[in-house]
């Protein structure tokens, strides 16, 4: 079997354009478009219907011959259910307690039950599975624990929308109990989609330990955590400002608020306000009259409607303009009975900004709230929970807040008190779920005092006990934790962990309990416990005690913060899992939840277990599109991983653009680009290719620009691995005797590839240990493609097809060894194809494991080290081969031309070595013949030449190609490049250059350098050819 006879492999080789090629497009034309044929072969294969015939959970029949072509649908079917049924992913705590193995533990960041996994999730899962499989193969008892988050706000919103769409029913129509029942039904029906995606990616998760953050065990842990934190004085109830979503009627955490930056005024729609639009990005200026005088004081605000809640105007105590006014009362032009006063606050007011006077609304602004606390100002809430104005807004009661903004401007104008509007760049908080404008509202809520726990968490990183990778996130960690605010954990929802707090009513003692009175609240693990305690406290019978449980639920991040230990049995610290698997070893996640989840897990673990939950935190980069734009539905550039794994049509890709928020011009441009880039859609690439591609992209720590065409290219690389094993199996049919490498008569090439194998084993383990996943993937890729396939396999064909049985067996054993080790090296990244092919290799009886997952990850092998001097010499042969191929390519020599090559040695070159290697060079370069000439011999006639270190290469071309025609061709190519350079330079220097993204500039600079290098190569070839005319 000749590996180069496979069109799909030719496609890969010519698409990759290994180091000797400078003009792949022209080469493709000369060789009859074989790359296109390879792509067509893939397309034809994908059109064939595939059906998995292996029963669920059964092992695939690997005795049947491998199909001719690599098909990810065939390769990736059946294996996962078999792995799971065999219990390969299950971690046994007894192996830890007995000392048989060391533990390695990692929790999956539980995705939302509502979500579909995107490429960011895919990258996370690939990295974590890679770590899991590598550690398992390295001898650890590995636990990778799966889970799913109940996602309070998201899930409730989805189910509420579904109810309304199907029956115009609200949750209030159903009542709390029946609504929560509906949510559980929805979760049970749709929650499994994410689990299926985990399995499609090949994730080695311990499904026996799957944890849902709202299941019974986690509910017990959450309740216990709340009670203990309250007992420690860390949880308390207070009335403070919160982020309020009027559309959802709940408080939000900071992470649930998106901020949009307005650099100029614009009109926006607001949920609950119909199709109206409202102005944002303005400062509205108006006057407050000073009572009993003709003096007026000017203030400005971006939220004019909040003036209904104003109780003061603050000025700087040193501001001469207002010194005589401090302490004076103001007249509220709309709420006549409102008492307002001018106060001096040097902390809040900048006398050099604006008029130097600031309106104070303590109930609706964070800065004003703090000012109100300092001066004991009244907090007047003017909004209902749905965003309408309440009774404190006087005649505006019942009206929507942004309608009121417009009406107040009109009223103040009529009163002669409105001074106009000025543009004001600003940031607007919007609910991430509904898009509603966030309203700061004063609410009694439950809070966590985070100060001491935050200090311990920051110190853990400072003293090196907790390691953040990459380290540049340390500064962000410190910035947040060193300036932490108390955490509001109340949410006004029905789906979630209901707060175990009870408002107490005691007949004759507390007849009218006050929700704002902390003394009227009791915390407990059960109502029975609380009733008994209250009855004893007030010395009354239990029957006189009535409890009203807080209707609010806890912030989802509260339960997620317990995940590293609540999943192992906590609050019972004596479970086998807690003893064996806590603390975890690493947390892998995205940097966007570093504070909202990671920091809180660390704080919670310190609080309840007095230790860190994990030793390392690896923060993976953000996945962007190929041009560096953040993936977003509004931009239409989101890629569903399953669209890559299973393939999708061009129409599917274009439909996303049509649904985006882009303007029509951008949509039309995008539609053309999609058609050009994916004329037939995305072919099924399989999970292995997606996984491998994501890891190869990981060369930058903050973000990666994902090019889907590269994933398609790695499908072809999977095909390369496939065909390499097929090549070995084909040659083995003529007889293969498995031996120890030490007992084989190894050739120079055999020794060289085994030396290279040792090097890649060393670097692979080092990269995994250091979390350098991009280097791990790319180094293995280069080893397998460039060294093993492109060099060793071609060089071994002389032995494989020869008559010397010892040499042939040595080559077969070397092939087997490199393939066996390579499959194990690749397995953490590409689990499916490596399992499929591992099962096919003829291992010695009794040595084959049930699964490649249970084999040992390769470590350096002493007998593979070889002779460094010989390895260096072989490297020089590879360099000569590359130069010869480059010379061929530059002047359009094809394989069937088979020109004569003469290598003229310098006086110090090793003639005997090169003489013995001439047959090998001939095989690798597809030359007609290769001869070695002495330094003092005459130069061959009719040849072009190139001097390299220690020798000169001559390629005889006279009589093989038409020299004039070739010179004309090269001049034409040179002219094309010169036009491309001119066009690119024009783009780089035009008006558009100022707005050009940095990534595009870098790409253009690379393109210019490549084009210039090609021109230089064309010029050299033209000069050489003219000398032969």
From TrEMBL:
GO cellular component: cytosol
Catalysed reaction, written as an equation: tRNA(Val) + L-valine + ATP = L-valyl-tRNA(Val) + AMP + diphosphate
CDD domains assigned to the protein according to its UniProt record, in alphabetical order: Anticodon_Ia_Val, ValRS_core
UniProt-annotated location(s): Cytoplasm
Domain Aminoacyl-tRNA synthetase class Ia, chain residue ranges per copy: 79-706
InterPro entries named in the record: aa-tRNA-synth_I_CS, aa-tRNA-synth_Ia, Anticodon_Ia_Val, M/V/L/I-tRNA-synth_anticd-bd, Rossmann-like_a/b/a_fold, tRNAsynth_Ia_anticodon-bd, Val-tRNA_synth_C_sf, Val/Leu/Ile-tRNA-synth_edit
This protein's UniProt keywords: Aminoacyl-tRNA synthetase, ATP-binding, Coiled coil, Cytoplasm, Ligase, Nucleotide-binding, Protein biosynthesis
Domain Methionyl/Valyl/Leucyl/Isoleucyl-tRNA synthetase anticodon-binding as annotated: residue spans: 750-902
Keyword ATP-binding: yes
PROSITE patterns xrefs: AA_TRNA_LIGASE_I (PS00178)
Stretches assigned to coiled coil: 650-677, 963-1028
Entry EC no(s): 6.1.1.9
GO molecular function, one term: valine-tRNA ligase activity
Pfam families: Anticodon_1, tRNA-synt_1
Gene3D superfamilies cross-referenced by the UniProt entry: HUPs, Isoleucyl-tRNA Synthetase, Domain 1, Valyl-tRNA synthetase, C-terminal domain, Valyl/Leucyl/Isoleucyl-tRNA synthetase, editing domain
GO terms, biological process: valyl-tRNA aminoacylation
HAMAP family: Val_tRNA_synth_type1
Similarity comment: Belongs to the class-I aminoacyl-tRNA synthetase family.
Protein name according to UniProt: valine--tRNA ligase
